TrEMBL record:
PANTHER family associated with the record: ERAD-ASSOCIATED E3 UBIQUITIN-PROTEIN LIGASE COMPONENT HRD3, SEL-1-LIKE PROTEIN
Pfam families: Sel1
Superkingdom of source: Eukaryota
Protein name: Uncharacterized protein
Organism: Plectus sambesii
Family indicated by similarity: Belongs to the sel-1 family.
Matches recorded under InterPro entries: Sel1-like, Sel1_AlgK, TPR-like_helical_dom_sf
Amino acid sequence: MGDMYRDGKGVPQSDEEAVKWFTKAAEQGDENAQYSLGYMYCDGKGVPQSYEEAVKWYAKAAEQGNMNGECNMGDMYLYGRGVPQSYEEAVKWFRKSAEQSNSIAQNRLGDFYRDGKGVSQSYEEAVTWYTKAAEQGNMDGECNMGDMCLYGRGVRQSYEEAVKWYTKAAEQGNMDGECNMGDMCLYGRGVSQSYEEAVRWFRKSAEQSNSIAQNRLGDLYRDGKGVSQSDEEAVTWYTKAAEQGNKIAQNCLGDLYRDGKGVSQSYEEAVKWFRKSAEQGHEKAQFNMGDMYLHGRGVPQSDEEAVKWFRKSAEQSNSIAQNRLGDLYRDGKGVSQSYEEAVRWYTKAAEQGNMDGECNMGDMYLNGKGVPKSYEEAVKWFTKAAEQGDEKALYYLITSSEEKQCILS
């Protein structure tokens, strides 16, 4: 009767009536009713929501060997709902359920072995449990098996095997599987490279609100790959992803507002999105925040704020930010002037192949600023920059060579 009222089959749907009948059966020791009653308390359906009451009834069901009760007890310990949070207790209950072939518990157990939570980390054990779940058609298990094959964790690395498992999940409408298939098609891993196929899979996933897929669609519309180029469509998809907190999309949306592509140009809106992304630690957005403060776009001009944001980005190895930070130390803007600090940051940028950093290193050696003056070192760095097409470095090479010849003659 509880099931009938809960599902509205043969009777008007009523969570309250469902709870009444589940309670009667549960108090007589019916394990399925105990599980169902726990579920109603957990979700607050027909009764005031209470994790403690949910745990009480899940535990009664689980202690009778009910695999769904065992699995849900695992979840309660995993998230610390109605009980103290404990990975070890979660593992205990998931294992009991998994050994009864509950595919959700099998997948969860795989997660614990993959991440080393509550158990010793083991990709091989993770694969064992993911496989059991996936072979029962569990979409999350299929996706996780795809990941393990993609990265060669606990199994031989194989793009083809990854595609096999992602496809199984995607064909069931799993948004992560669809997004992963989009990536495989985008990069031609295990399948023929195809922007059109990538778009098809990303769209399926994006329409289910997967923010990664929404961001990818934004990229493809922005670049006109697999679809007709459209900044307006790019803005649409970046916005959807950005509003879900996707930091990459937030930065891309900031780019479009800054440049007035697909939207009315607005430095203020650009800063809003750059800041959201930068505060999540996205190094490109941190650089962009520095640039906006440096030039006073959408914010009051501030060399000090520029330094703060460039430093955050530079410390994450963004070579453009490292070079900019070098400029500010060289010129004493927003920081105490220091050629030595300038050289330190220029070096970091130059060693990553940043041609502006290479050119600046050449200039510092040529003029002996922050380093001993060295024509040979200057030429070395100018040459590296010139080979990348830096005209300033090429000019320095020509003029410094002429000056040296004049001195020698």
